Amino acid sequence: MCGIVGYTGHRQAYPVILKGLKRLEYRGYDSSGVALLHNQNLQVHKKKGKVADLEETLIGKNLEAQIGIGHTRWATHGEPSDRNAHPHLSSGGEIAMIHNGIIENYALIKQELVNKGYSFTSDTDTEVLLNFIEDIKKNNECSLEDAVRIALKRVTGAYCILLIEQSNPDTIIAARKGSPLVIGIGKGEHFLASDASPIIEYTKEVVYVNDYELAIVKPDELILKNLGNEKITPFITKLDMELAAIEKGGYEHFMLKEIFEQPNTIFDCLRGRLDAKEGMIRMSGVDLNIEAINKANRIMIVACGTSWHAGLVAEYIIEELCRIPVEVEYASEFRYRNPIIHPGDIIIAISQSGETADTLVALEKAKEKGAFIFGVVNAVGSSIARISNAGAYTHAGPEIGVASTKAFTGQLAVLMMVALNIAINKGTITQERYKELLVELEAVPEKAQAILKNANELKVIAEKYKDAHDFLFLGRGYNFPIALEGALKLKEISYIHAEGYPAAEMKHGPIALVDENLPVVFIATQDVYHEKIVSNMQEIKARKGKIISIITEGDKTSPTLSDDCFSIPPADEIIAPILSVIPLQLLSYYVGIAKGTDVDKPRNLAKSVTVE
Ligand code: M6R
């Protein structure tokens, strides 16, 4: 949550920062602001609303500066407003700071500062930390760097902070714990950001700053230290990402672009790993650790949101193919209870961003207890990728739309390959079935393409149901998690209340909601449950509910019970969820568009939830 950008070098800082903030807006868009330093003049501009609102207020202003910091906010402490927007200025007006994260003991520190006579202009924990730093600097007559180091030893919580000060014309001080920070290395210039998207246009050489590290960044110099003031050699990584990947490429929204990218992103995910002709899957993360995996008595899957839904699909598939018991946990629950973890337990962590705070902390705890972490992550070099003992990237490319789409199908593709790989190694699947599923998986990109060709049909359905107040999504077996995902997508994008349920569970309560105004979406593709789900449709029809069904081409029964149908190509029931979710993504997108919501930046949400 919150996006941060910093620049020091030979260019004008404001355009670099502004562009960077627009790229990071998916991380939060309640307010934004910049601090620019030129000739010892520190100017701060901030505005409630989106980055475009800030940009508008700054038209015509003199923004000359070659060093600056900028922030786009997802509110935690204090409502979205101009005064709570970052950057904050210290009481003395000499230091400006931006912050991503939460300072948990801010109230205690604030009280100490109030007792010393400090007053505050915002409700934020950030302003507290900033004045705490200023106070330490004054009292100890030390440098800003030293003051930051001393302050950070006292704070608990998560942070990535960037600071500039009036008396230091070219230096940014940065530090992180729990919230991401990437530093791009240019010629006579450095770029700082929450992820690589604001940097990639200028340089591909980056340093991922680790927790408890502090960076002193000047145009020609990058010094990394730990909080004990010892120097650390920066580890330079080459970015494997192109600028086009983070632009809309002619689509009206990132979400639509990302939905339509899926044939390619799934292909990229399978490429080099799955070889149906040879009848094999190569995944070094699994292959190199196969003994540990084979020994596991159970697998735990830890994730949040859409990634948690991918985990549920994986539970069904791993138990079926590998005969290993699987438990799927919400990371936010797992981290606070006292889960039973034995050394050698396998935990699969699923995350698009690789920065979700709940997931990250859950993994840290599990790792401390000796668990082996297998990461299924999209963002290369992210915190979860780095904390994992092994893993497999989803290779879906940057996902900018707040609603996760292509990352989800990438997660499913990876998890299916992981399950197949384990199963063939454990001998819990026959060679014949294994090869059959490899062929099925290899065919997914082409089938996804076929679904997307008919996207307009979903636009028509969306128009018809856009005014409904509630939706019910029902599925069974492998498609039950897809029902949950369909409901989550619709809620996020259109703000329509939606519930996902196992279709048979519906009669234990939700059926009371059914009347002629309730659209019920059935994920009713051909599988062993098909007859059962047809009976569930009958039950809804008998109560006058409106039925929208996602079916397999050639299904003759479901259309007779449905008000609207969308067909997808036939696929093995284990593979079908990667395909059956695509129409649901499109349905939510088109309902959102019909209702006029901001589909790429739905209200109250942020792409990367780096606070608990
Ligand atoms: O980056 P992660 O996959 O760890 O994020 C987890 C959830 O925050 C995320 O899936 C969220 O539910 C999405 N907005 C869903 O579209």
Instruction: Give the termini separation.
Output: 10 Å
The CATH superfamily of the largest domain is Aminohydrolase, N-terminal nucleophile (Ntn) domain
Strand order of the main beta sheet, please?
3-2-4-1-10-9-11-15
- Shape designation: globular
Largest sheet features: 8 strands, antiparallel
- Residue-averaged pLDDT, rounded? 94
- Unique ligands: 5-amino-5-deoxy-1-O-phosphono-D-mannitol
Percent in helix: 25-40%
Percent of sequence in beta strands: 15-25%
Count the domains. Answer: 3
CATH classification class of the largest domain: Alpha Beta
**What structural category characterises the helix and strand content?**
alpha/beta
Low-confidence stretches: none
Number of helices: 21
Per-chain topology:
Layout (H helix, E strand, L loop, with lengths): L2 E6 L4 H12 L6 E8 L2 E8 L2 H7 L9 E7 L14 E2 L5 E9 L2 H10 L9 H16 L3 H11 L2 E9 L6 E6 L4 E4 L4 E4 L11 E4 L4 E6 L2 E6 L4 E2 L3 E3 L15 H7 L1 H9 L3 E2 L4 E2 L2 H4 L2 H6 L3 E5 L1 H18 L3 E5 H4 L11 E6 L5 H12 L3 E6 L5 H5 L2 E4 L12 H21 L4 H12 L1 H10 L1 H11 L4 E6 L4 H15 L2 E6 L16 E6 L5 H13 L3 E7 L4 H5 L2 E5 L7 H20 L17
Parallel strand pairs: 18-19, 18-20, 20-21, 21-22, 23-24, 23-25, 25-26, 26-27
Antiparallel strand pairs: 1-4, 1-10, 2-3, 2-4, 5-6, 6-7, 7-8, 8-12, 9-10, 9-11, 11-15, 12-13, 13-14, 16-17
Helix pairs in contact: 3-4, 4-5, 7-14, 7-16, 10-14, 10-18, 14-15, 14-21, 16-21, 17-21, 18-21
The structure holds 5-amino-5-deoxy-1-O-phosphono-D-mannitol.
